[in-house]
Each structure stands twice: as structure tokens, then as C-alpha cells.
Amino acid sequence: MLKKILLGFALLFVAIQFVRPEKNVSTAPPGPDDFIVRLAPPPEVKAMLQTACYDCHSDNTRYPWYAEIQPGAWWLKQHIDDGQREFSFSGFGAYSAKKQAKKLSALIDVIGDRTMPLPSYTWVHRDAIFTDAQLKTLITWLEATQEKLADEN
Ligand code: HEC
């Protein structure tokens, strides 16, 4: 009986490997609406955002090893879909001035209180955990950018 159940799971595991969601990758370089292209953050800020946020909130995910094993890719796809719906770094420039301002304060909130990146993500992506110093650099830049955008509009 147990053997049959285990065999059933093994077969199921093999079968689900063939169901692969479409990948979220873009071969084109980031366009003018991209957050980083538009706001030109210093290299350290750029690197932090790309490392910790772009996988779920942009048009271009760097697929990790676990995405090659199901249900890893399904899990990631769900997060990319949900993440993109809430906020896209790739499409930032296309938001209205009001929405850009709103999203900038949301960024400051979620980075500041460490709700983003999601804990389930940093569990695997240890390099996406910011040190206190990094967090400060990031928030300082985001706040300065917020003021700059407010002045422009
Ligand atoms: C593993 C995927 C993943 C990563 C990595 C990730 N996010 Fe998210 N993010 C989500 C999902 C899913 C949601 C929507 C559901 C939720 O809020 O939990 C979301 C929601 C958000 C929101 C919307 C909250 C609001 O009130 O508008 C912001 C802003 C955000 N993320 C910013 C970031 C930033 C900044 C980073 C990097 C520091 C980041 N996220 C990293 C998946 C991710």
C-alpha cells in the first residue's frame, strides 16, 4: 500500500515536470519607462533593486534553479503575476504623476519595514536581504527622488 502511494507521488512528480509556465523574460533592453532608466539611481541603488525586486516586479526575471523543478516555476509565476499587478518597475514611467508618487511612497514603506522582498523569496535569495546600511542608502535615495518628482509635477 505505502509503496503504491509513493509510486503514485513519484509519477505525479515526473508528470508535473512537463507543465511549464511561460517565462517572464524580455530580450529587449529596458525601455524609457523603466524605473532605473528614467530615474538613473546611483549604481549601488540600481544593483539593490535589480537583485531584490526585479525578479517579481519587472518584465525580466532571472530564473533561479528551482524554477526548473515544478512546482518551483508555478510558485514563481504566481508571485510574478501578483507582483507585476501591484507594481512594475518596467512600466513605472507609464504611470500618471499621481500614481508614481503613490508608488514611491509604497516603495519606501515596504522596503523600510522589510515586508519586501517577500520572506519566502529571501529564504532562497540570501543576497536580496539588505544590510541596515544598504536599507538606509536606498530609503535616502527614494525620499530624495520623491521630492524631486514632487517638484517637477
Ligand atoms: C518573490 C516575488 C517578489 C519580490 C522578490 C518582491 N516582491 Fe513586491 N510584491 C510581490 C507580490 C506577490 C505582491 C502583491 C501581494 C502582496 O502585497 O503581498 C507585491 C507587492 C508589492 C508592492 C505593492 C504594495 C502597495 O501597497 O502598493 C510594492 C510597492 C512592492 N511589492 C515592492 C517591492 C520591492 C521594493 C521589492 C524589492 C525590495 C519587492 N517588492 C520584491 C512579490 C515580490
Protein architecture, described:
Helix content is 59%, strand content 0%. By secondary structure, the chain is an all-alpha fold. It has one domain (23-152). Helix 6 (97-112) runs antiparallel to helix 8 (132-152). The radius of gyration is 19 Å and the shape is elongated. The mean pLDDT is 93. It binds heme C. Heme C binds at residues 52-53, 55-57, 79, 82-83, 86-87, 106-107, 110-111, 116-118, 121. Residues 52-53, 55-57, 79, 82-83, 86-87, 106-107, 110-111, 116-118, 121 line the site of heme C.
What keyword list fits this structure?
153 residues, mainly alpha, 59% helix, binds heme C
Give a concise summary:
It contains eight helices and no strands. The protein has 153 residues and is mainly α. The chain has one domain (23-152).
What is the molecular shape?
A: elongated
Helix content: 55-70%
- The number of distinct β-strands equals 0
Question: Which spans of ≥5 residues are poorly predicted at pLDDT below 50?
Answer: none
Radius of gyration: 19 Å
What is the chain-wise order of helices and strands? Answer: HHHHHHHH
Largest sheet: none
DSSP strand (E) fraction?
under 5%
Report how far the terminal alpha carbons are from each other: 69 Å
The count of domains is 1
Can you count the helices? 8
Q: From the helix content, strand content and strand pairing, which structural class follows? A: mainly alpha
Q: Cofactors and ligands present?
A: heme C
| Overall pLDDT metric | 93
